[in-house]
Amino acid sequence: MILIKQASWKDLMKVFQFLKMAGKDFPDPYFRVTNKKIDHIRVFARLIKHLFLNSFQKLANYSTVMWLAEDRDRVKGVAIVGIRNGKALLHDIYVSRDFRRRGVGSELLKVVIDFCTRRNYVLGLYVKNNTSAINLYKKNGFKITGSNNGSIYIEL
Fold first, then answer.
1. The pTM is what?
2. Rounded distance, CA 96 to CA 49, Å?
3. Using an 8 Å Cβ cutoff, are 79 and 93 in contact?
4. Between 51 and 126, where is the model more confident?
5. Cβ burial, residue 37 (10 Å; 0-12/13-18/19+)
6. Domains of the chain
């Protein structure tokens, strides 16, 4: 059974291991690794930075919120949202290959939408050539509102 919860400091290593196993860089638009090789030390440092900034949101005026989809205490999916000035940018929803097409991504998205709606955040995201992702977002009320450098901007 999948349990979805908001990530905390205790979950830091689980998130890092999940992203590392998935071969994913931490989706941080300000410090993205630009080369193809992922430096896992930098990914881990960015996770710490974002969780630290989340604790000082008033000072930083930026925070990152993460949710985990877990099965038997193992991470099977992650949703990562950056928040700044009343706007939320969905950086990524990633579900492990063995749990795709089981509704895990939809459940993570619903949690993110609920979180943003309750706080009156405008929720948006950029998508590049991913038809299944675009369909998921459209099915959940998102509309294409623009494009930039080959990416489509979708907003709720």
1. 0.74
2. 24
3. yes
4. 126
5. exposed
6. 2-155 (3.40.630.30)
